[in-house]
Amino acid sequence: MSEADEEWHVEQPPGAARTRTCDHLAPARAPAAQPARCEACLRRGDTWVNLLACLVCGEVGCCDSSPGRHAHEHAERTGHPLARTLKKGESWGWCYVDEVFLARTGR
Ligand SMILES: [Zn+2]
Ligand SMILES: [Zn+2]
Ligand SMILES: [Zn+2]
After folding, report:
1. CA distance to 27, 48, 67, per residue, from 64 (Å)
2. pLDDT in tens, 27-38
3. What total number of domains does the chain contain?
4. Which of 9, 33, 46, 91 is paired with 84 by a 20 to 30 Å CA distance?
5. Distance 4 CA to ligand 1 centre (A)
6. What does pTM read for this prediction?
């Protein structure tokens, strides 16, 4: 019912030679919503393409298509492997360790 019950599974690409797995899904949840902006970019006066929210602590950072790649930097710095997109109309997630796409289970 609440966003805290959010569940994710690994998206299997069509025709993949092997089954993709991710061992980091257990703690995945939707933390309290943060403002949809990349603070690190704002401090530097940069702009971003899209934003990702960490599924462990909720920190928002910019995606790998953005110059700053701050979501990736956050994952490496903190060891929080999972993030989900904040792009309107999309709901995929990503594991920086296993490099697999995640999909929300259920809705
Ligand atoms: Zn993983
Ligand atoms: Zn950024
Ligand atoms: Zn985090």
Report:
1. 23, 9, 7
2. 566 666 678 999
3. 1
4. 46
5. 19
6. 0.85
Q: 72 C-alpha to center of ligand 3: Å? A: 10
Cα 84 to ligand 3 centroid, rounded to whole Å: 11
Q: State in Å: Cα 92 to ligand 1 middle.
A: 14
Instruction: Tell me the residue type at 39.
Output: E
Residue 59 amino acid letter: E
CATH number at residue 85: 3.30.40.10
Q: Is residue 18 part of a domain?
A: no
Task: Indicate the DSSP class of residue 24.
Answer: T
pLDDT in tens, 11-26: 998 888 889 999 998 7
pLDDT in tens, the chain (107 residues): 445 557 889 999 888 888 999 999 875 666 666 789 999 999 999 999 999 999 989 999 999 999 999 999 999 999 999 999 999 899 899 999 999 999 988 75
Separation of alpha carbons 75 and 72, rounded Å = 5
47 in any annotated domain: yes
